[in-house]
Amino acid sequence: QVQLVESGGGLVQPGGSLRLSCAASGSIFSINMMGWYRQAPGKERELVARIFSGGRTIYADSVKGRFTISGDNAKRTIYLQMQSLKSEDTAVYLCNYLSEWGQGTQVSVSS
Question: 10-30, pLDDT tens digit by residue?
Answer without folding.
Answer: 999 999 999 999 999 988 888
